[in-house]
Amino acid sequence: MTAVEVSVVLPAYNEADTIEQTVSITLETLASFLPEDAYEVIIAEDGCSDRTPEIATRLANEDSRIRHIHSDERLGRGGALEYAFERADGETLVYFDTDLATDMSHLEELVNAIRIDGYDVATGSRWMPENRADRPAKRGVPSFGYNTLVRTLLRSDLRDHQCGFKAFDRGALETLLPLVQDEHWFWDTELLVKAQRNGYRVQEFPVDWTPKGDSKVDIVRDVFGMGSQILRTFWELSVSPRITREVSLGAGTMLVVIALLLMTQYLDPDRVLAEMAGAAPEIVALSAVVYAVSWPLRGIRYRDILVSMGYRERWRFLTGAVFISQTGNLVFPARAGDAVRAYVIKARRSIPYPSGFASLAVERVFDLLTITLLAGVVMIGLAVTGSAEQLLTALTGDSVGGDAASSGRTAVAVAGGVGLAAIGAVVAIVASARSDRNLVRAVIGRLSSDSYADYVAGIIEGFVGDVQTVAADGPAFARVGAGSLLIWTLDVITALIVFAAFGYSLTPSLVAVGFFAVSVGNLAKVLPLTPGGVGLYEGAFTVIVASLTPVGVAAAIGVAIVDHAVKNIVTIIGGVASMAWLNVSLTTAVEESQSTDAIEPETND
Prior knowledge:
Blueprint: E1 6-12, H1 19-31, E2 39-46, H2 52-62, E3 66-71, H3 76-87, E4 92-96, H4 107-115, E5 121-125, H5 137-153, E6 165-169, H6 170-176, H7 187-197, E7 202-206, H8 219-239, H9 245-262, H10 269-277, H11 281-308, H12 315-331, H13 336-349, H14 353-385, H15 388-396, H16 402-433, H17 439-447, H18 453-472, H19 474-501, H20 508-524, H21 536-548, H22 553-582, H23 586-596
Parallel strand pairs: 1-2, 1-4, 2-3, 5-7
Antiparallel strand pairs: 4-6, 5-6
Helix pairs in contact: 5-8, 10-22, 11-12, 11-14, 11-19, 11-22, 12-13, 12-22, 13-14, 13-23, 14-16, 14-18, 14-19, 14-20, 15-21, 16-18, 16-20, 16-21, 17-18, 19-20, 19-22, 20-21, 21-22
């Protein structure tokens, strides 16, 4: 009996209508160029819900060259292939799509590229210049765009990464598989890219290919999933290896310098510096002490959120985690610090990532709702007293100064949008917490008909479930709300003390406007449009204070800069101390958090 040399794996998910014909054609084609006992055909049946398992079992019982490998749970395309390859007997491992879109006349060339020519990986291609597949625009355009992105960002030399027609040398594949993180449709791309990066011989050859069945762009699968996977792999292969401790320190320092420079983009530095020079340093120091008091309150509030979700942790540790994450938001772009907190509590306290992100979402919603409430109350007061007209004039005219007014208009517009979004989020969360309907499945089902949408829905359901747990817990909701109100009141008091340091009397009018200015400024900097929100915060603060109080533009900007700087300095000092205490590297935390939060939907073109 000849030992099995070639194992062909057919990934099958609900293929009852076609699997029998596919197996028959595969056996016939293999028999045309291989000895009778030199090959096997494995049906990798991936948790099917139709008659595919029954058909596969029958075929295996009828022909010794056929094997049926069953999975009780859905493993996904990549997962099912790996599961089958591990159990295959051949030294040359092959797979192709069961719809037989690729002409089977190419199978001999595919197999012999590994078996005879000595390549480690071989793949068919629909995008070779000499034989481009003719396919509809709704397939061709997304495929061309996807492959162009992979070639550009991941530095691949191949033209087609997802043609379902590939072969591998067993030794090479066994070495590569531990490097591949994806378990679904990106599995092909990641394996090909990493094979090239690790010096394996990869052959790409043109194939005749005919589209089978209908295809459409899938929002969940294609746009969100594949894009996130390309970025995740780009980070892993091109960015992460270059991030050393020295590079991180240099980049962080540069961002801080840029942030400081941005503080002067809307003003005359000489006038502002003159105003700031007159501020009483001892009172500015007092504002820093008051702001520092709010941080243990943040830790206590975060503890209450986690307790309602079933996790009990000490408030001191959680205060340190909050410090580290907020420092990350100041140093790294795109609010990367938010993901850092989920990493810290996962690495140090084993709280799952979905729960970590859900707890952070709850905190953010309470923050935004509280700030919106403070701003809204004062806005009502301004409307009653007629002062709202002054603010509107300042936003639409040049009374405050061109650049400052422009920044203020942008900031107030952003703040309004964020405030409305916060109110909408709270309404949606509370309503869904009281509803028995599974809204997540309904929404995902409308966006995507792909089978992997169930996986995405499962992750989102866990996230939403944790958020709803807090919303449904009345006492916890009240405690977290009260804590949020106290935290943001201290934030405003910090700014009011800075006004006092500049020599201004804290009249009821200035206190009210101060509450409004700080609230709108904090809403404006929620979107990561500038490092640490610098510029938007100062713009909103200045246009509101200068238009509604006797405080001049230069003085208002000076107060805003000092207020924001005091808060950022306290945050950074607390963050550095917390990193030393908890032995957390901010760079490592950012890297690890970004490599774990990508959802991995599939694509098929």
